């Protein structure tokens, strides 16, 4: 069971309107900035406490220029306070346009699942082994993988992060490719294909670029 109020948006469905504070300067990032103007690659992350999200944002940042060359704009949503995100990205700059949504309103609107942490799910999470970025000699237990990545990043959890964890965990992440008319044409929901083994994984660059090329033609 999940706490999402609706199933995830699927190809062919209209994307809902959103308006969120921009991380860069506190102005508003709106769906109207893109609809009718350009296709949008939308990445919905959780808070910066998530080491998988931090690394995924780096990966997506390397794709931004290639997507723009195709004619697709990119927006990543981080689920934390704008000021907290602004401080983080001041020291870790990115090409990505970023919006902040600590309450996960956009995740709810797009139907991104938040699994119910049942005893069975918690047991499965203890048993799963992951290596989403190919950094480990062998896959590690989920909690250990997260700890190792956090230590490698030198990331120190703040009270803001802890508040985000308490509200968000175990929210999943998602990617959407939306055409210039505001219709979802491609979606990738974390764990949809592989179950818990898919935690932290992004589609390949090739898969994202293929989806982008399809949405501009």
What does this structure look like?
The structure is a single chain. The chain has one domain: Glutaredoxin. The chain has helices at residues 51-70, 82-91, 105-109, 119-127, 142-153, 159-168, 205-216; strands at 19-21, 28-30, 40-44, 73-78, 97-100, 129-130, 140-141, 174-178, 184-189. The protein is built from 7 helices and 9 strands, in the order βββαβαβααββααββα. It is globular. The chain has 217 residues and is of the alpha/beta class.
Low-pLDDT segments: none
CATH topology: Glutaredoxin
Q: Number of helical segments?
A: 7
Sheet having the most strands? 5 strands, mixed
Strand content: 15-25%
Q: What count of domains describes the coordinates?
A: 1
Kindly state the mean pLDDT as a whole number?
Answer: 94
Amount of helix: 25-40%
What is the CATH level 1 assignment? Alpha Beta
The gross shape turns out to be: globular
Short description:
The chain has 217 residues and is an alpha/beta fold.
Any chance you could write out the topology, listing elements then pairs?
Blueprint: E1 19-21, E2 28-30, E3 40-44, H1 51-70, E4 73-78, H2 82-91, E5 97-100, H3 105-109, H4 119-127, E6 129-130, E7 140-141, H5 142-153, H6 159-168, E8 174-178, E9 184-189, H7 205-216
Parallel strand pairs: 3-4, 4-5
Antiparallel strand pairs: 1-2, 3-8, 6-7, 8-9
Helix pairs in contact: 1-7
List keywords for this structure.
17% strand, globular, two-stranded antiparallel sheet, alpha/beta, Glutaredoxin, single chain, 7 helices, 217 residues
């Amino acid at each position: 069971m999940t706490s999402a109020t609706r199933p995830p948006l699927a190809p062919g469905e209209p994307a809902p309107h959103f308006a969120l504070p921009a991380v860069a300067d506190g102005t508003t990032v709106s769906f109207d900035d893109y609809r009718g103007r350009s296709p949008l690659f939308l990445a919905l992350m959780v808070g910066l406490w998530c080491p998988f999200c931090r690394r995924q944002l780096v990966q997506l940042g390397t794709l931004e220029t290639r997507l723009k060359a195709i004619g697709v704009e990119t927006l990543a949503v981080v689920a934390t306070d704008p000021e907290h995100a602004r401080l983080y990205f001041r020291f870790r700059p990115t090409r990505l346009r970023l919006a902040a949504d600590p309450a996960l309103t956009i995740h709810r609107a797009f139907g991104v699942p938040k699994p119910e942490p049942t005893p069975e799910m918690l047991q499965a999470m203890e048993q799963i082994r992951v290596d989403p970025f190919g950094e480990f000699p062998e896959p590690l237990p989920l909690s250990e993988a997260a700890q190792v990545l956090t230590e490698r990043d030198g990331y120190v959890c703040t009270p803001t992060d802890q508040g985000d964890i308490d509200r968000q965990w175990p929210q999943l992440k998602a990617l959407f490719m939306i055409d210039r008319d505001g219709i979802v044409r491609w979606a990738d929901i974390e764990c949809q294909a592989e179950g818990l083994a898919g935690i932290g994984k992004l589609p390949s660059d090739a898969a994202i670029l293929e989806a982008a090329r399809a949405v501009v033609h």
